[in-house]
Amino acid sequence: LAFATRSKSVATMAASQEFTGNLKREVEKLFDASLRITVPDGTSVETEVAASLPGKPGDYQCNNAMGLWSVIKGKGTQFRGPPAVGQAISKNLPASEMVETCSVAGPGFVNLVLSSKWMAKSIEKMLIDGIDTWAPTLPVKRAVVDFSSPNIAKEMHVGHLRSTIIGDTLARMLEYSKVEILRRNHVGDWGTQFGMLLEYLFEKFPDTESVTETAIGDLQTFYKKSKTKFDEDPDFKEKAQKAVVRLQGGDPIYRKAWAKICEISRTEFAKVYQRLKVELEEKGESFYNPYIANVIGELDSKGLIEESEGARVIFLEGFNIPLMVVKSDGGFKYASTDLTALWYRLNEEKAEWIVYVTDVGQQQHFNMFFKAARKAGWLPDSDKTYPRVDHVGFGLVLGDDGKRFRTRSSDVVRLVDLLDEAKTRSKTALIERGKDKEWTPEELDQTAEAVGYGAVKYADLKNNRLTNYTFNFDQMLSDKGNTAVYLLYAHARICSIIRKSGKDIDKLKKTEKLALDHPEERALGLHLLRFAETVEEACSNLLPNVLCHYLYDLSERYTSFYSIHQVIGSPEEASRLLLCEATAVVMRKCFHLLGITPVYKI
Ligand code: ARG
């Protein structure tokens, strides 16, 4: 029953019309109140409110009349059909300054038109109090976002770049929604690759003290060489396997060499994070090592673990392979660490929502250990109740040839080079437009960076993350279409209009009124007011593309407004400047949530 969760009395509803940020929720509250009067006692009903499609009458519609009719007809109701139910829903709507009109159409759709005056007032208030007052409130206090998570000494590839970009955006959106976020870099620093890496290191550098980054040179090449040796030399292979056991058993010499390799990798990863301005706290696989045995013990005591061909596994309904937790040689697996990390996050870190960002290829792994955790009673059976876990999967990055993205020269793509190239290209484009003559070198560099990195991020985020995306510099750096460049320029143009007006916008906010009298102004205003509900939707479905779509729409609506209405020098100048400023504020917040640095000049 919807009413059980939204239990405000009708009287308080009518009074509370101050905008709390989520427009759809505000409208829902009004219809909740109306339905409570309209519906006979004891009828359960979930309020159905949706934003009206463009071109339809009304801003929001309530779709309950039809469903309600089928529940109450033939039960002595006074209503004659769905339209009559709709009429009653409309009539029983509490008085609210939010509402301009409410009417019924067709088989009983109740269309609500918001008051333009109220809309304008709510935007004015946001301009004064700041956009953080629009932040959604989610039903969780603390969450983990497990993202980026490359593997030490192995390649940090474009898949990790996607994870870094998507994870950072999700973390930002949740942080804005007042959730405390533990940004976790679950680096692969404990796997079997270390056996061969360490043995190879001891061979090359008998004195491990002499090992430095420059001595090892490129860690990926080092990894490849050790792998070749591992595959070709049986003696080396045996030594490598023993090395893993010594490392995991805590042998100081092995631990020291291991730490050195990790340090070198970390420096490499940091270059990418620093360019992207992404913050992460490393708690790699090794961190959970001391807890694994206990966690496996707990699962065992719950009767989850069985023997199978010398290994210890968990059989799970719906999967044709079991989840392996202890190998036949006693070693632990990826899943053992993930189960332990989950236990730690739930019990030690008290996270209520744990979000994992990896390619869809790992979906089965996540589904399996999530299921094991449910079986152990760590998580509720329903996957939308808290504590909650979600695997945020994403598709591949493709090259223009439709195959996995590679660079021409080598089979690995160095992420640092990739980002640098985006910046260089955006700088070249700015120079072609003569900006090197207008701006200081710092301005040129900062803009090139904001645009270049922003383009890479936005190209990744704008499509549904599950689809593969094609990495193409020309497309992402184009100033036309749905690109970061286009959006950043749109924002800069708004800022330049405000600058050219010569007006002090902070003063206008306090002294002038905003009016949404013309259809284009009103459509833009309505879109601004839908910002928070959009962020909330993007958060609950973990879909950054929802926010990208919103941002692109916003700039389109702004263009429709600006191409018809004069701002500077018009009788409505003050009001329109406020509308420009509100658009710029919301755009900047979108950029911020997407991890893109806004630019103010173009
Ligand atoms: N290191 C893994 C990889 O590169 C990703 C780890 C994702 N996080 C996790 N808790 N399993 O594929």
From TrEMBL:
<dbReference type="Pfam" id="PF00750">
    <property type="entry name" value="tRNA-synt_1d"/>
</dbReference>
<dbReference type="InterPro" id="IPR009080">
    <property type="entry name" value="tRNAsynth_Ia_anticodon-bd"/>
</dbReference>
<dbReference type="InterPro" id="IPR005148">
    <property type="entry name" value="Arg-tRNA-synth_N"/>
</dbReference>
<dbReference type="InterPro" id="IPR001412">
    <property type="entry name" value="aa-tRNA-synth_I_CS"/>
</dbReference>
<dbReference type="GO" id="GO:0004814">
    <property type="term" value="F:arginine-tRNA ligase activity"/>
</dbReference>
<feature type="domain" description="DALR anticodon binding">
    <location>
        <begin position="487"/>
        <end position="602"/>
    </location>
</feature>
<comment type="function">
    <text>Forms part of a macromolecular complex that catalyzes the attachment of specific amino acids to cognate tRNAs during protein synthesis.</text>
</comment>
<dbReference type="GO" id="GO:0005737">
    <property type="term" value="C:cytoplasm"/>
</dbReference>
<dbReference type="Pfam" id="PF05746">
    <property type="entry name" value="DALR_1"/>
</dbReference>
<dbReference type="InterPro" id="IPR008909">
    <property type="entry name" value="DALR_anticod-bd"/>
</dbReference>
<keyword id="KW-0648">Protein biosynthesis</keyword>
<dbReference type="GO" id="GO:0005524">
    <property type="term" value="F:ATP binding"/>
</dbReference>
<dbReference type="GO" id="GO:0006420">
    <property type="term" value="P:arginyl-tRNA aminoacylation"/>
</dbReference>
<feature type="domain" description="Arginyl tRNA synthetase N-terminal">
    <location>
        <begin position="25"/>
        <end position="114"/>
    </location>
</feature>
<dbReference type="InterPro" id="IPR001278">
    <property type="entry name" value="Arg-tRNA-ligase"/>
</dbReference>
<comment type="similarity">
    <text>Belongs to the class-I aminoacyl-tRNA synthetase family.</text>
</comment>
<dbReference type="InterPro" id="IPR036695">
    <property type="entry name" value="Arg-tRNA-synth_N_sf"/>
</dbReference>
<keyword id="KW-0067">ATP-binding</keyword>
<keyword id="KW-0030">Aminoacyl-tRNA synthetase</keyword>
<dbReference type="GO" id="GO:0009791">
    <property type="term" value="P:post-embryonic development"/>
</dbReference>
<dbReference type="InterPro" id="IPR014729">
    <property type="entry name" value="Rossmann-like_a/b/a_fold"/>
</dbReference>
<protein>
    <recommendedName>
        <fullName>arginine--tRNA ligase</fullName>
        <ecNumber>6.1.1.19</ecNumber>
    </recommendedName>
</protein>
<keyword id="KW-0547">Nucleotide-binding</keyword>
<dbReference type="InterPro" id="IPR035684">
    <property type="entry name" value="ArgRS_core"/>
</dbReference>
<dbReference type="GO" id="GO:0048608">
    <property type="term" value="P:reproductive structure development"/>
</dbReference>
<dbReference type="Pfam" id="PF03485">
    <property type="entry name" value="Arg_tRNA_synt_N"/>
</dbReference>
<keyword id="KW-0007">Acetylation</keyword>
<keyword id="KW-0436">Ligase</keyword>
